[in-house]
Amino acid sequence: MAYNEQLVTRIRKAFSHVRNVEEKRMFGGLAFLVDKKMCISVIRERIMCRIDPTIHEDVIKMPGCETVTMGSREYKGYVYVNEDSIIAKKDFEYWISLCLDFNKTAKS
């Protein structure tokens, strides 16, 4: 499984205050589950964010962001964000916040 260790380290640091975090190998990378729900993962040189599906269409307009597609199916509420788009701390924190906010109401 190939994933960017620097991104993993950044997420671990961002999640250091979060309770009930579990790391699990999935999606060809390393996923972070919060309260047993997939929240964010690192896959190669990008992150996969689980976000509120109601904001999906607005969010995919952001630089370096695209809808997760598996086969021919698009998954609304799941987006990939390229590493280049989260270099700045404020950009990285934006995505972390979206993931953690949705996790509070997301279903397992």
What key phrases describe this protein's structure?
108 residues, alpha+beta, Aspartate Aminotransferase, domain 1, six-stranded antiparallel beta sheet, 6 strands, 27% helix, globular
How is this structure best described in words?
The chain is α+β, with helices and mostly antiparallel strands. Helices cover 27% and strands 37% of the residues. The protein has 3 helices and 6 strands. The protein has a 6-stranded antiparallel beta sheet. It is globular. The model has no long low-confidence stretch (mean pLDDT 96).
Number of domains: 1
**Mean pLDDT rating:** 96
The H-and-E topology, N to C, reads as: HEEEEHEEH
Strand segment count: 6
The amount of beta strand, in percent, is 35-45%
Could you give the order of strands across the largest sheet? 1-2-3-4-6-5
- The rounded distance between the terminal residues' Cα atoms is 24 Å
